[in-house]
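Example 4.3 (complexes with small molecules)
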Amino acid sequence: MGGYGVSLVGHCHPKVVKAIKEQCERLIACHGSLYNDKRAELLEKLAKISPKGLSKVFLCNSGAEAVECAIKLAVKYTGKHEIISMVRGYHGKTLGALSATWNPKYREPFKHILIQSFKFAPFGRLDKVREAITKNTAAIIVEPIQGEGGVHVAPQGFLEGLRRICDENNILLIFDEVQTGFGRTGRMWASEHWGVTPDIMCVAKAMGGGMPIGATIAREDIMGSFRVGEHTSTFGGNPLACAAACATIDVILEERLVERARDLGNKFKSRLQDLVREFSILREARGLGLMLGLEARIDIYNVLMGALERGVILLYSGRNVIRFLPPLTISLEQIERVVEVLRDVFSEEEKRFRGSFKTPLANGALNEPS
Ligand SMILES: Cc1ncc(COP(=O)(O)O)c(C=O)c1O
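Answer. The structure with pyridoxal-5'-phosphate bound is encoded below.
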């Protein structure tokens, strides 16, 4: 589970702990209207590792806040007010972010106060995205790999197509990399798998090594559309969180965790694909790097509980997908132990469903870029 993807550098990484300790003895809080050296250091680090052209950063405290800023930026910059989001997309639960989140379970109780000018198009369907566009469309927001929605990797050509559509129609492309960012998928940003650069990128989760921090990273001209004071956060960019984020980025680079995610992710996925071949209750293993999903043909509640009894905390995406977001510092031995626990639990479940399913679907590479 990896703390829903937060524990990218593991839990209490010594360099992150040291950075927090040192910073909290110097200065904990400092409003963004004043200069702070740690914040400046973080902004420089972020600009260095961000996709080319994305050089301006708004610092906040969570993923949802990073999305709120992106929405406001798109509206302010384009002067338009409609946003297209994706079916199964997840962007957080504050009102703006929830308006872009698809799951009716989260939206329904608040539907009357959600932003009405948000629309949804099926993930992967450029034709449907085109149909949803009007002269008022300000932005398209998308996760390159849908996390909460079930670990769905953007099909080849989709993000490239979105980029083209946005360029042709004066629409901004927002990538929500809150879950996929900072090396999780085997590239620093998931967008790199497709060579597509967004106009605005949202990040958070792993960014602070466990401390709450998020960021909206955009082109300079886009960020420049905010007037001073138009979008602020009292705690956003506080030195303590910035110190933790600086240390986290250093650890990711120094320990070559991006490459590690790619290498271990391939091994992990191939072991999950073995399980798919072994058990008819499993349908598919998919994902990139250490963001993997294992889709079952059954409700996985018993699997989650069985794994928990055996010391493995799993994360789900809906009723039938196990989502793996382990720390990139995980060892191959730990991955193999998880796979053995899964094999054990699936064997029990397979007995209960014996004969219900005929042929295991032996693949796991559908829809994925090479
Ligand atoms: C893609 C994506 N965007 C936004 C969010 C919201 O982040 P937070 O829970 O920090 O508000 C999440 C959280 O899971 C996420 O996965």
